[in-house]
Design brief:
The protein has 397 residues and is α+β, with helices and mostly antiparallel strands. It is 52% helix and 12% strand.
């Protein structure tokens, strides 16, 4: 049986490689008719993952992902049997919502006087901006659980497509903001961008509905789905607000997952109870994330005004998987230099949500200089940048 499975996987690899060598999807569908008629979502994602591990570029896989689905789509069926409030049901409903929203935008912009529709267009743009929570829930909750089940490359490819979608939306928003008082002058360009966004979303959502989501459903436990839904609720929603939770019998049911004890942690310069230490980290005016010497995320604090989203799903995740594929080589370079003692910090600063954010990375070492891991410190320094002169303690009176 294992030999037959191995032979089938090699044949599926051959199909994908022939696509990458320029063969048309229609030719391959005829040539491999019997092979592909019963292919599963997990087989496709698994074969793509193996090809990447064998040296095929993730960017090349992503670029030809539409062609892969064109060959296999007749054997794929969307998973629609999840109950109301299930994370997959929520995501698929959002897919439909966003597609209908962008389709409406296209229709408002196509071949008509749009001056009467400015308010409708403005509202659509506003909702599309709020839609970022959809992608954050996938990247920070769903993708890490897939990776823990050994499904690593498909989430990375989907994340790459998220960034493509973000780029298109950024162009759309920029065009709108620059011309919102005179959209008629850029109506054609606005329509073309909306049409491009619609086509990209249609392709991306099809892949997730037919590849990523079935793989999740087939691998995750009920307890994992319960935790995913809890994390979804923490991040929040933008357009589809679930009214029920199939994992909670009573809507008022609460479960305290983390119990803090009175046990003391003794350090060279003092001691804390676990409750005190947890409260101390969460009271810091900056976010910290610690990864160990194996590049695994082990801890993050939970400040009141956290800057970047962190969820419990990232704990135990390789830090490389917490970054888009295009920046992983930079992450590895910094970590290698920390481990080799060639670097003692890495600083970056960006504008994010109208705030000036200072991001710093430091190697963490023991008393003998052995590398233990890396800490990321992220701080909003917008107000700090404006400080001038002095303010002494006595001036507080």
């Amino acid at each position: 049986m294992s030999e037959l499975i191995g032979k089938r996987r090699e044949e599926l690899k051959k199909v994908i490689l022939e696509l990458h060598n320029g063969k048309s999807p229609e030719d391959l569908k005829r040539k491999f008719k019997d092979l592909i008629k019963n292919v599963s979502a997990e087989e496709i994602s698994s074969v793509e993952q193996e090809l990447i591990e064998e040296g095929l570029s993730p960017f090349e896989i992503q670029k030809l992902c539409d062609s892969h689905l064109e060959v296999f789509k007749e054997s794929l069926k969307e998973e629609t049997s999840q109950p109301e409030g299930h994370p997959i049901k929520i995501l698929m409903e959002e897919h439909n919502y966003f597609l209908n929203l962008v389709d409406t935008l296209k229709k408002l912009l196509y071949g008509k006087d749009i001056r009467e529709n400015f308010t409708k267009i403005e509202n659509i743009v506003k909702v599309l901006k709020e839609g970022e929570k959809h992608y954050l829930r996938e990247e920070n909750v769903l993708f890490p659980i897939l990776e823990k089940h050994g499904i690593t490359q498909p989430p990375q490819i989907m994340w790459m497509e998220h960034d493509i979608i973000r780029g298109l939306k950024k162009k759309l928003f920029s065009l709108y903001e620059r011309n919102k008082n005179n959209l008629v002058n850029v109506q054609k360009e606005f329509y073309n961008l909306s049409s491009n966004l619609f086509d990209t979303l249609s392709s991306h959502f099809f892949k997730e509905n037919n590849i990523l989501f079935p793989a999740s459903i087939n691998n995750f436990s009920k307890e994992e789905w319960k935790n995913i839904r809890e994390e979804f609720d923490k991040i929040g929603y933008c357009c589809i607000h679930p009214k029920s939770n199939p994992f909670v019998k009573n809507s008022s049911e609460k479960e305290k997952k983390h119990v803090l004890t009175d046990e003391k942690i003794k350090l060279p310069t003092g001691e804390f109870s676990i409750e005190e230490l947890n409260a101390l980290f969460n009271s810091l005016p900056f976010d910290i994330t610690f990864i160990d010497k194996e590049d695994t995320v082990k801890y993050f604090n939970e400040t009141r005004d956290k800057i970047f989203l962190r969820t419990e799903s990232i704990l135990g995740r390789k830090v490389q998987l917490c970054h888009p594929q295009k920046s992983v080589h930079i992450v590895n370079k910094i970590l290698d230099e920390f481990k080799n003692g060639k670097r003692e910090k890495a600083d970056f600063w960006i504008y994010f949500n109208n705030k000036f954010i200072y991001i710093r990375y430091f190697p963490v070492k023991d008393e003998k200089g052995n590398y233990l891991g890396c800490v990321e410190v992220t701080q909003n320094i917008t107000d700090i940048k404006e400080l001038k002169g002095e303010k002494r303690l006595l001036e507080e009176e």
